[in-house]
Amino acid sequence: MNHSNRRSHLSLVTGIAMLASGGLVRTSQSAPADAAAKPYKILNTTQTLGTGGIDYVYADNSGRRLYVPRGNQVLVFDEDTLKPVGAITNTSARGAAVDPGSHHGFCSSRPVLMWDSSTLATIKTIDVQGRPDGIIFEPLTERIYVLSHSQPNATVIDSKAGSVVGTIDLGGAPEQAASDGQGHLYVVLEDKDNIAVVDVKTLKVTAHYDLGGKGGGPAGLGLDVKNRILFAFCRKPQTCVVLNADDGKILATLPIGAGTDGGGFNSHTMEAFSSQRDGTLTIIKETSPTTFAVEQTVQTKPGAKTCTLDTKSDQIVLITTERAPAADTGAAPPPASGQPGGIRRGGGPAMLDILVVGR
User: Fold this and answer.
1) pTM of the predicted model as reported, rounded to 2 decimal places
2) Are the C-beta atoms of residues 227 and 233 closer than 8 Å to each other?
């Protein structure tokens, strides 16, 4: 480099330094704070015409697929584009779960259907008892838990072989569950207003954490594994009860919307979230293991009461249904189901809405 170029380079560096000291150059360290300050909003939506009821939406974040049980099939979408990629047929399911290691998928139905998550081809059916509803993959033992409001409350399936390894009496009607990946499965019991703690190695309930009258009818659950915090989302009253995951001590209560049926926790943003039938999504910020606040209430759509987290994009995916326009069906809209959106067990064609909420 010649002297003239050196002087120019020095002047350029000095100028940048002066701008930075004056606050005119934004450094990369400020980017996360700026991003976190942005409000959540609906970023993307799609609609698919069809028939039948819906319940739990599930994101297979490893395989990048989104599963939506509807009617007598499970619809499968690309998680990144929301384009349909196929369907798992001949099963009336309430939810789905996938083992990312074996690439085996399962749906909460009777019998349980097991499929290859890469090809969507059916592998086998598994006879179970009770009334399958919620479902979750437990990573430590690599097992699927099929939850039922009637006994047995949980049927445990080996995700590789597809064989039943045991059943569990949870002491109540389970809704959503969360695993800490360290040997504990937490399950909210809707009719008992408590959280059952399961030892996944022994398949035994080791504790029940009572909500102490702070919340009733818990239906959604979030878990901060690092700080050992549970977020129980309740219907009556419309409350999030925050508890210590190790001893069940109640740490806080916060208001949420009406009709929760799902929730979770994002460890990247340190936020819990609950989706509600009234068309709201409640975002709760955990600023410390003892400090929590409602950060935002996002307007979604009526009936969007179940949700799942896209861990790649830090976005929340919700589903609901709404009447199909007459022009789409060639007939008058189907009669009202009595409830806005959500599960439809009968009637004519309706639109399945997929909503993506993020920053």
Assistant:
1) 0.86
2) no
